[in-house]
Amino acid sequence: MATVGFLHTAHAHVRTFRDLLAERDDTVEARHLVDTGLLATARAHGPEAVRPALGDRLRRLVAEGADVVVCTCSTVGPTAESVGAELGLRVVRVDRPMAEAAVLAGRRVAVVSSLDEAAATLLPLLRECAEETGRRVDFVPVRCTETWSAFESGDLLTYTTGVADTVRRALRPLDPPVDVVVLAQASMVDAAPLLRDLSVPVLTSPRLAVEAAVELVLPVR
After folding, report:
1. What's the first-to-final CA gap in the chain, in angstroms?
2. Percentage of the residues of the chain whose pLDDT score is greater than 70
3. What is the pLDDT of residues 41-85, one digit of tens each?
4. Domain 3-94+207-220: which CATH class?
5. Do the domains 96-204 and 3-94+207-220 match in fold?
């Protein structure tokens, strides 16, 4: 049976990705591994500090049957992708499918982040995807760093409403407006429905990452 592994840095992500995978294809198995220390260490010492630990966690998921692993943390995602390539493992960094879609959606892209580290990894990825597709893209950063403490404490309602409110305040006065909004972190997924009034696409990473992972594993069924 095809199996997707998920490497998380927050317990809150397990339900999100479990439900999305079941919705996409309920015949695909899931393996979840949560290590909150990865993000804490990466924030304190840089993503390279968790390279050995990432290798261990990726190998563990593969040993448990994962045909592909989705790293659901934007901050350590680039390092996980790099380690996976070195080990010959199929690893999807959660924000890559979203970045690929964003540069095709319009020229002015709002990049929303509640962690500076997430923006620091996503912006180069967006530029890379734009260059690969020959697109000229302008980025409008929207920082919601004051909301992160609510996520860390488990108050997801305050977190998501805070993200949505910050985005709305930042974008509504803009002239010209943005063409697409990118929510940089998987933790922001529930803010997207609160931003329907913006009348532009609001992209989140979890669903697109699950789609990409399932497309990779289905041929092995």
Report:
1. 6
2. 99
3. 999 999 999 999 999 999 999 999 999 999 999 999 999 999 999
4. alpha beta
5. yes
Element (H, E) at 70: strand 68-71
* Phi, psi (rounded to 5 degrees) for 199: 65, 25
**Residue 76 contacts residue 57 (beta carbons within 8 Å):** no
**Residue 109 host element (H or E):** strand 108-113
Q: Does the pLDDT value for residue 1 go beyond 80?
A: yes
Question: Could you identify the residue written with the tokens 């709305």?
Answer: 168
Phi, psi of 143 (to 5 degrees): -100, 130
Alpha-carbon distance 179 to 136, whole Å? 13
Residue 136 main-chain phi, psi, to 5 deg: -100, 120
Annotate 18-82 with DSSP letters as a single string: HHHHHHH-TTSEEEEEE-HHHHHHHHHH-GGGGHHHHHHHHHHHHHTT-SEEEE--TTTHHHHHH
* Domain range list for the chain: 3-94+207-220, 96-204
CATH fold of 96-204: Rossmann fold (3.40.50)
